[in-house]
Amino acid sequence: MADQATHDVLPREGIRLALSATDKWDAIRQSGALLAELGAVEDGYPETMLERERSVSTYIGEGVAIPHGTDESRALVRRTTLGVLQFPAGVEWDGKPVTICVAIAAKGDEHVAVLSALAQILMDPGQAARLRTSTSVEEVHELLAGIGKGIEA
């Protein structure tokens, strides 16, 4: 297991609160740009996130979407990293309102562990509500800190 001090899968600078997006495509572009800004992905990865969404919705419920690239795009991932983008006003996502995008750049099959940990958090309605409404980067980081545990960076 990688030393979490060397690479935090969910860096605090990857948590962006109080954003706005015109639609889900804008939210996905912002998600891809954040992963690129964090140095987690090579050029081209953000475009694969749009490709993924065109083939299957990344909406998972509880006001959360998990934009990520196609299976083929894993070669463009430098290191497994998450970004969290909060859209308090909501973004229409296939008829459902999304207030949280968890952008995922994962090497290999690590996205499975990420999704499992995220599902555990979202199954608690109180935690899901805190995630959607928090105004504190520290609180969001604390809520999602468990996602990075056990993932090789």
Can you give a write-up of this model?
The chain is an alpha/beta fold and 153 residues long. The protein has one domain (12-148): Mannitol-specific EII, Chain A (3-Layer(aba) Sandwich), CATH 3.40.930.10. The chain is built from 5 helices and 5 strands; from the N terminus they run βααββββααα. It has helices at residues 24-37, 45-55, 110-122, 125-133, 137-144, and strands at 15-16, 59-61, 64-65, 81-93, 96-105. Strands 1-4-5-3-2 form a 5-stranded mixed sheet. β4 and β5 (96-105) form a beta hairpin. α1 packs antiparallel against α2. The longest helix is centred in the N-terminal third of the chain and has 14 residues, at 24-37. The chain is globular, with a radius of gyration of 14 Å. The chain starts with 14 loop residues before the first strand and ends in a 9-residue tail after the last helix.
